[in-house]
Amino acid sequence: MRSTSITNTLLLLASHGTIISGATTILALPFAATILPLAMAVDRAKFRTCSQTSFCRRHRHGRSKRLYDYRLVADSVEIHRGENNPAGSSENAAAAVGTAGGGSDDLKSAGGGGGGLLSKFSRRLLGRNYGDDDNDLLPGGSDNVRGPTPILTAKLANVAPFTSTALTAQVYGGNCDNNLNSEEELNLGVHLHEDGVARIRITEVLGGDVRSTPRWTSDELVLNEKEMIGAREETVQIMSTDTSIQSNLSLDGEEGISKDVVEQVVKSLTQRAKVDGPYDNFIVLSYGPPGSKQWQLMLQLEPFSVYFFRGTDDGPPMIVAGTGGLTHFEVRRDKECNSSGSPAKGAVEWKQQRKLTEFDVDLGDDEEEEEGENEEEDRHGGKEIVGYWEDGLAIYADGTREERRELESPAGEEEGGAEDLDKGEGREQRRLDEEEFDTAGMWEEKFGDHHDSKPFGPMSVGMELTFPSSNHLFGLPEHASSTQLKTTAGNEGHHHYKEPYRLYNLDVFEYELDETMALYGHIPLVISQSMTTGTAGAFWFNPTETFVDIEETPEVGSEDVSSKTHFMSESGIVDLFLLPGPDPTALYEQYARLTGRMPLPPMFSLGYHQCRWNYRDEADVYAVHAKFEELDYPYDVLWLDIEHTDGKRYFTWDKKTFPDPIEMQKKLGGDGRRMVTIIDPHIKRDNNYYIHAEATKLGLYIKDKKGEKDYDGWCWPGSSSYLDFTNEKVRGWWAEQFHYNKYQGSTPELFTWNDMNEPSVFNGPEVSMQKDLLNLNKCEHREWHNLYGMLFHRSTGEGLVQRNEGQNVRPFVLSRSFFASSQRYGAIWTGDNEAKWSHLEIAAPMLLGLNVGALSFVGADVGGFFGNTDAELMTRWMQAGAYQPFFRGHAHHDAKRREPWMFGDETMVRLRRAAMARYALLPYWYTVFWHAGVSGMPVMRTMWMQYPKIPELYSVDDQYLIGSDLLVKPVTSAGAITSTVRFPLTDCWYDVDTMQRMQGNKKYAGNTVSMTVDSDIDKIPVYQRGGSVVPRKLRLRRSSHLMMNDPYTLYVALDNDLKADGSLYMDDETTFDHEKRLDFGVASFSSNWRENIAIRNSVHVGSEDAINSKAKSDRIVERIVVMGVPAKPSKISLMSTDSTEATLMEFQYDASTQILIIRKPGVSALEEWTMEL
Question: Which residues contact 856 (CB under 8 A, 6 or more apart)?
């Protein structure tokens, strides 16, 4: 959220226990949180690079590929028919594999315990009997795969002459079994979905003490199980050119397929994939709707790889996995063996609550632990620590602060070297230097002053994915870079970035631009857009730290053009979902069925939000609110940051500055406004603080690496504990804290902001938690790090729902951190940006990147959080913000006040005009959000999402679409008076201000035309697509609540064929009645002037009982504006369903502008009618 520094802060540091600032005395524990921040550039030394991260360094650029060569074992192949329900749906799939702790009731409702799969299959694929009690599992529950059960299972064997397991045995020698290569067997499961999604899931074969339990997975926390429906088994055809496999297929009841047909199919697919080699090396699974083989998945046995085709064309595969030899799966193994050949004591100690030393290296003494303690003492020179800065540096009782030290060069940098390694790692490295294997950091790792004990040793997984015939990849949010992914690897230096894209949720203030370094949240989704292969995607379902390299064929016009990604994750399993598209609409529907749909937010949350760190007191709140009222400036929500609390104790109020929060909320609520307060995941360790006392008593906190003590980290309150949101019990308890009788001073008008939820820990490695901390199920933090923010966000949203009687009011929660499926829980913003033109410029590409990841309710802080903005930058940012899904102004408390009136009357008028444009379009925004929830299509769309057949638009990220009908080009440079906009030629476009069709000087490029348009300080270029109908409300109100019953104006933009269509979604804008009572209506407007239809309305209502006469009278259309009318009609008559006679409409027509306006037609958007020419 913020940086911290000493400037403008301490007036006096008193005696050891207190800090005195003016008349306020504060205990030393929250010292760090009382110091005023100073904006400062990001400290890159705090954050690791690939070369400083052992698993990335070890596997990047194929350094470890000689250790991994996987073969699908032919005689292990099993086909599983009759083990799904008739549709292969998740309902029985969940029952088949059982449940594990951590899922919510709604996620578990489709699943159950026990039964379903053959016991042989359960043992073979999953390694356990699912009637067993999950509570005895370590670490972290069962292999709780959810969704459709696999149609095919098999073993993968690592047949490399020398494997990573054998490497460990060679280094540590002793009496270890020299046949450890055999332990590198893996389970493969292939799952097929009815919508074409294919899931490739690879897990360890269980056995022995080290691999006695499955690795921790999070299906029940992320996946949208209810919509994951398996392909109907009668639509799946399986064949193989391997004679033994094909024979077994026949024995298992597969329909007889002649050898010639099999060879013909495989030959065709291998030719399309340009695969050389023998034809007796493949399995093909064809599936699709009944009577169609729309998709084909081809498995190559050796080397194991996957080819994903569309059966409806003869082009190359959409996606290829594993062909580059970069697939790796570091199975868990013992580091050393004792004299009996049994596991080393480190593995046994796991069973004893994991009582490990600081360095989990069993070399016969405790020298390393003592050395680490001495190093810590030397680091601080014996000074007493009273706090930490956000940069991890200590604050001392004498008022001084720790000086930053230069980090030592990490062991195993790309240039090599093994200094400063622990004894075991140094020994291993020295013995293998000639082999060029990088083994530094495999069994423990150090970054700065932080050590990772790694009790299970190396556990990394990875795979290379290729997108043939594509040079445009998107996704992997969040990064401060272009929407299109740029290369990080390539031949002869052909790459844009040196570092791979990093996916590891971190608190990074004042982030640098055009970088691949990790930010606040991440989604491991990559989407390819190509004229040849269409739209296709890959979801790498792994929440551990991940690096991704991007490589493309340099010669874009060459025959072998392709793009490649190399995913490298620290732990977890290989769980790859392949999404076939073939277009953006289909792909986002597939992804929504996989990870969930965005719920419709309350209308107020789409309005303008005014925030600052911090509004000082109730008087300040009232003054700001009154000024908005005085100026008729629309806004919906006023926010309070951390200073509103009692000493950074969340769910409390500072009684001196906010003595009557309920009355404050009621006063603002009476004018149609809401409020938001911040609630972060760190809990102040104060036994007199009721939240902390109860959480401690109930044992809800994350534990230290031994699993014994509650973890103690530093954040804004000082010494803090962190709740374990991976645990369902903890999430339920947290939700209860929002009940009105617990959160004293809260009302239904109060909503929530979740910040610092990466999680942020000031004195932790990379400003986060140590990876070897344990959750309540004794699973390491490294396994679920990227889920933490999403689960916190989810739990808060559930609390806001549960607090109301009937649980019928929609929540609003803003979060900074996220993962896949966060779209289900609320809004996201791009974090601590700066008041600079460059940050305004990067806002659109970043927000588009989030929308590529299906996060639609997103925004960047208007004005920039850090620093001071001038009138021009503030104007341009407000104009841009009015056309981003989440619209909030925010500022650091060191920044000058920047409420809209602080820049003078002229600028205030401009800012208000921008906000008014937003409010006028709220009916359209609300409709687009509804459509996004139904279809999965993003709200804020890249140009290629709407125009996938126009490659000239693929790389464009400085303009975008809201829904399908509004094209926005933010102005992001100082002094600009013109802008260049690229229009697709497939549509015509109208300026939303002049309502004129775009004409003028044009520069054609393929299927686009570039035009230079006016964009002086009073203008943001926005255009309505010809062929669309956009609803607005034009009466100026000060909040969305006051606009609810205002009439609509319909803006009809005719296309080249004089047609248009559009929709308007309507409900009560607040409750869940649109779901519970089907209390909603959708008006579908259409216009066809060549067939004499000026405009027609067709209505769909969820429930006839819900839409009554009052609802109809509240949804009046007061004006219809039609653009692009070539000639004045002689008359326009209205025909309605409740009248047999036509009514003549009054209208005006301007031949010079070709605009026709129908005034006061007196029709309801909830009634069907037609206006004829």
Answer: 598, 823, 885, 929, 932, 938, 939, 940
CA of residue 931 relative to chain centroid, distance = 19
Q: What is the mean pLDDT of residues 16-27?
A: 31
Cβ atoms of 196 and 288 closer than 8 Å = yes
Q: How many CB atoms lie within 10 A of CB 719?
A: 18
Distance, in Å, from the CA atom of 64 to the CA atom of 326, rounded to the nearest integer, reads 8
Q: Alpha-carbon distance 798 to 316, whole Å?
A: 45
Angle (deg, nearest 10), helices 871-881 and 837-852: 10
Contacts of 746 (CB under 8 A, 6+ apart): 661, 665, 677, 738, 740, 803
**846, 833 Cβ separation under 8 angstroms:** no
Q: Which helix (H) or strand (E) holds 852?
A: helix 837-852
- Residue 10 is encoded by which pair of tokens? 């301490």
In the numeric block, the tokens 């299959």 are attached to 121
The two beta strands, 608-610 and 637-640, are parallel
- Which residue type, as a one-letter code, is found at position 265? V
Confidence of residue 276 (pLDDT cuts 50, 70, 90): confident
Preceding amide of 582 cis, omega within 30: yes
Q: Compute the distance between CA of residue 54 and CA of residue 451 in angstroms, rounded to an integer.
A: 13
3-state secondary structure of 982: strand
390: its two tokens = 């956000």
Q: What pLDDT, on a 0 to 100 scale, did the predictor assign at position 240?
A: 96
CA distance 664 to 659: 9
Task: Tell me the per-residue pLDDT of 921-956, one tens digit each, with 9 for 90 and over.
Answer: 999 999 999 999 999 999 999 999 999 999 999 999
Using alpha carbons only, give the angle 808, 811, 812 rounded to the nearest 5 degrees. 160
Interatomic CA distance for residues 1025 and 989, integer angstroms: 5
The Cα 607–Cα 846 span in angstroms is 21
Burial 890-913 (b: 16+ CB within 10 A, else e): bbbebbeebbbbebeeebbebbbe
One DSSP character per residue, 19-43 reads: EEETTEEEESTTHHHHSPP------
Paired tokens of 267: 């030959």
DSSP 294-352: -EEEEEETTTTEEEEEETTS-S--SEEESTTS--EE-----S-B-TTSPBPHHHHHHTT
- pLDDT-derived band at 431, boundaries 50, 70, 90: very low
pLDDT digits (tens, 9 = 90+) for 595-607: 999 999 999 999 9
- Looking only at the bridges linking them, the beta strands covering 1048-1053 and 1116-1123 are parallel
695: left (phi over 0), alpha (psi -120 to 50) or beta: alpha
- Rounded CA separation 712/729 (Å): 21
Report the alpha-carbon distance of residue 847 to residue 705 in Å, rounded.
37
CA distance 551 to 567: 12
Gyration radius of the chain over CA positions: 30
Cis amide bond preceding 204, omega within 30: no
The residue ranking higher by pLDDT, 489 or 930, is: 930
Nearest CA-CA partner of 174 in 16, 358, 336, 326: 336
Give pLDDT tens digits for 548-582: 999 987 655 566 789 999 999 999 999 999 999 99
Secondary structure (DSSP) of 674-740: EEEEE--SEEE--TTSHHHHHHHHHT-BPB-TTSSSB--EEETTEEEEEB-TTSHHHHHHHHHTTST
| Residues with catalytic roles | 755, 758, 832
**Cα–chain center distance at 345:** 40
Spatial separation of the C-alpha atoms in residues 1073 and 807, rounded to whole Å: 11
The strand pair at 637-640 and 282-287 is best described as unpaired
Residue 251 DSSP class: H
Helix (H, G, I), strand (E, B) or coil at 109: coil
